[in-house]
Amino acid sequence: MTEEINIVETEPIQIEHPNVVIGLPDVGLVGLIATMHMIETLKMERVGYIESKLFPPVVVLHNGEIQSPIKMYAKDNNIAIVSEIPIPTGAIYDLSDALLKHVKKWDPNVVVLLHGIPVPNRLNLEEVQSYAIGTNDKTKKLIAESNIKTMDTGVVVGLKAIFLWDSLKENIPTIALGAESFLEYPDPGAASSVVIALNKLLNLDLDVEALLNKAEELRVRMRDLMRRTQETMRGTQPVRELELPPMFG
User: Fold this and answer.
1) Which class in CATH covers the domain with range 5-9+17-233?
2) Residues with Cβ < 8 Å from 207, sequence gap 6 or more?
């Protein structure tokens, strides 16, 4: 880990070749909503946290218990990492580097980064589409076998861009899994599309209907976090993914 980021396993994680799912606040809070649904559905146990002076001075309270806003959960062969605060621009590189080095120690079967893909016509979409990017032959084969569309052209930004690039160099099997989403509003519908795809990738059985049933509650509860996330993203996402094609291959 870097000197700036401290990753603490309060319960030693001793899972052989785990599936690691990472959900951080970004477009539509898609990654956060989908990962929290996974944690709640599987009744995963909190096994660690991430702290840094680069993060805002924030703790969260759940049932009267003081907790770090960035936590790790585990159950069976799955590990989930989730943040309840947006990651400051100045911490993105250090956090990505620390996560990559720590995850590499687990020798993961696959790492899946969940996120939203902003689209201007989200309100008019009857069916939200999911897209995936894989870093090596193993992940590309898994995406194809799961019948998930591949993002062929576009731009990836933020922490997931750094993590994908470094995973490629370090040969860590990583997939970025995103769904078309509202840019400025919490989007449980997009998160449900990601959960459907995640079920296929990791052979899970997460209840999508249960997520959709609490969609309105999530939209209301997460409005303030979405606003803070938007403010944070303005410095790191000047372009929208999928809207800017690469100049050359």
Assistant:
1) alpha beta
2) 41
Is residue 149 scored above 60 in pLDDT? yes
> Is the separation of the CB atoms in 105 and 45 below 8 Å?
no
Confidence of residue 246 (pLDDT cuts 50, 70, 90): very low
Residue whose C-alpha is closest to residue 163's, from 196, 115, 197: 115
Q: Helices (DSSP H) in 29-130: which residue ranges?
A: 30-42, 92-105
**Percent helix, strand and coil across the chain, each rounded to 5?**
40, 25, 35
Which run of H or of E encompasses 88? none
For residue 6, what are the CA distances in angstroms to 39, 50, 59, 71, 198? 22, 6, 15, 12, 28
Quote the pTM value. 0.89
Distance in angstroms (rounded) separating the CA atoms of residues 118 and 130: 12
For residue 3, the model assigns a pLDDT of 64
Per the model's pLDDT, the better-predicted residue between 157 and 233 turns out to be 157
